[in-house]
Amino acid sequence: MPHKIAFKVLHASSIDNGFSIKELEVHNPLVKGWQSIKFCPYPQEIILRLPKKTRIKKLQLLVHQFLIPTKVEVYLGSLPPEHVVSLHGTRYKRLGYVTMSDNERTSFKARELKSVHVDAVGQYVRLVLHKNYINKFNLYNQVGIVAINILGDEVDDDGQIIPDDKQQRVNDLINKYMPNGQEFQEDSLTTQNAIDPAVLGAMNNPDFISPMDDLAFDMYQDPEVAQIIRKLDLRKNEAVLQEEYDIAKRLKQAIADLQKVGERIGRYEVEKRRAIETEDYDLAKVKKIQMDDYRLQIYKQLQLHDLLESSKFLFWPPKNNDTTSDVKESPRYKKQDEAPPAAKTQQKPRLDPGTADDRPLPALKNSPREQAPAEPPKESPRRQELQEREEVEVQEEAEKGTLNEELPPGVTQKARREATGAIDVFGEEVVFKLYAKSWSLRKEGIDNIRVHLEGITETDKEILRNILRATVFLINKLLKDKVISIFTSSLDLTSYILEDWLARNKMTRNDTAYVVDNVLPDLMSRIGDTNARLKVASVDFIIEMARMREVLPLHTVPTQCTIPFKPNSQAKIATTKVDIVIRLLQDLGIDRNSGLTVDNVMTFALKAIEHTAGEVRDAGMQLIFELYKVKGSEVRSRLPNEEDPQTKKNSLYMRIFDGLNKIDGKPTRSEQKIRAKKEKEAVKKAKKEEIEDLQKQLADLRSLTKAAEAANKKNREPGGVNNNANGNQGKSPRAPSPNKRKIPTRASSIAEHSDTGEDTDNQCVFCGDKDDAYRDDGMDVHYWKQCPMLKKCPKCKQVVETSGQTEHLLTECEHRAKFAKCPRCSEAHEKVDLDRYVTEKICDPLEPGMARCPLCETQFPASDENWKTHLMGPNGCPLNPRKDAKKKKLQVKEKKGPGAAGKQIPRKVKGNKGAKAR
Description:
Required for ciliogenesis and for structural integrity at the ciliary tip. It is a single chain. This protein is of the alpha+beta class. Strands 1, 2, 3, 4, 5, 6, 7 and 8 form an eight-stranded antiparallel β-sheet that branches. Strands 9-10 form a two-stranded antiparallel sheet. A hairpin with a 6-residue loop joins strand 13 (850-852) and strand 14. The longest helix has 48 residues, at 669-716. The two termini are 101 Å apart.
């Protein structure tokens, strides 16, 4: 069968500093592989030599994550017969080439494993690497190969396959268990001595490649675990040949479990190596301890020692009472049974038990050896030796009183073995109470432990640590109890250990960390308990433990609680975990002494809002809001852009941003929409009211104008009464006097100029501007929008003269009750602000004979001409918005061309057919 072929690297075109071509000969998680020099010439070559001529079935290349060649050509060569070994004398045959991925899809973090299936014979392999892919990480245009694996069968000069050690082992078993090496016959299949042909065919499949020979197995497995897996795989095959299917099943399951274990230990090894490179020796020590503890824990959990021992003494044929006579008569059995005693005692097992992977582990008493029959008839020498050893062990255990003795109800031999350390410290009576079915006995056992701890006067640190480990072991058992009183008592005992016992005995920080590391996982497992009281008690104690003086500097609780969970994790546990982080954030805050940072909390919260359950997402948003109250800008920097179109489509992020705005006192998006709608409606309403007011004023202006025209016409008729000669009758109606400061009507203009006969229908009486567009209703629009001598009252919106705004606010305005005359500047100010104007001297006193512009507060001599110059002149009031109206109107006329300044027709206002406005 094809298997892994060792090779030597003979040549490489170039080698970068810090790398070695010899690393390609080794496969483990820590190898760096080969890397070309910076800005190397292409193509680059690597030449490998195999031990013998080999029929290669598969070639595997593990390429660097970003130093990636675009193409690799594969050549296979050999030397002519009796030729002196020389690198240049090799004859190569091109097998083809493989292309590599540019790795952009994985962000240049994953390494590509390329497997090439070939069928060719040779002893030398030549790899030609072409130019690299260009990416932002490969600054020097290099290429790199992390590992190379060759799978095949070694052949002799005649082309016959030379079996490897594994295949030779199978062949030896077949030869051993098949008399005289004969082929299978129909009559031989009826006996227990024969091997099932189906099993033999599966074991001798010429195209089968073991997963243990794959490159991915060695590159991600711990070397020690990988060696154990290979040994178990060999023994599994032997058990299948010998029809020991129970053992084969156990071995198969152990192999599957150990593969996962080896990958995890391999990751620990990589992390430890990285810590050593960065000189973080504390982290390296932690990783080493984690590796050793995890390794021993798994070995014990899988009962690896018993598994190796039991599989080491496989025997042939399988025991069968019905075929005892056939077994006795078989030549193999007779040959073994007639062996001299010395040969029996010196016979070695099939695999050497002294290798590194058979390290001594605590022997578990529930080994399958205990279930073996006491004395099977005429056992093989190896079986007899095994049984004699078991009898010795049973006798020793019986002498110690640890076997076949009656134990209290609820206590098994397995439980007793697990609690050996605790029994040595507290005694059997106290420990067995904790295993009792009665909760009152368990409660009494907890009280006894507390009394025992309080009475300790020992000063030896090693003895105290043994006591601590025994106590933590019992606490771990009690934290799994379903009775609330037992659970809370175990919490009280834990609190006593952390807050009192450790400090009183001057234990180190590592001892505190040991307690927290072992207790916290059990507490976290109860936060999703169906018993609400147990759940609340667990959560409260986790928060309390995080605040403890000895525990707070460790940062263990915040760090463990902020480990992100998967999006499909159990909703109840996930929600509770988020609530715990919120409470920790409120109690401990965000700083380097609390163990909570913006990074770890936001990473945890962003994973929470990606959960499939709505309650978890809501809890995650609440956590973001709590963190935002403390670190607002840093939280926003870790969220997507609020104005991004993709973000606006995400309702979840919109809810988050609404919550953040609410915290800032800003309106949410829904509130902003409501406010904008209200403002729009208010503007629309104000515009409507303005139009209605304008229509009312225009109607009043039209009525006054008609009355004035009628009176003027009557005065001009023969026999009419001249109002200058006789003031008793026929007085023409006039607009309010300038002292009233109301907007003038066209009637006043007509009346004032009626004596001279001048046409005043197209001239403004205030600014003196003339325009044919002022005829009819155009003058009204001029007053309302354009005249620079007029302005709207800021309160009632009535058009008044700018020079008369103060008198208007004091005597005519609808809001005149709110205004009073300032004794300092003689202007109109609101009564609520009048005292402040006087006391703080905000305004300047008005000098005698001077006037003050209400727009720019400029003083100038009081006269109509000065007002006109100030409000209309080019260097006049800078704050008069109507000053440049005439100039803009002239510019419009010029754009329209000659004759364009015709009659201005105001547009009709909706809702009133008779009213017109601009």
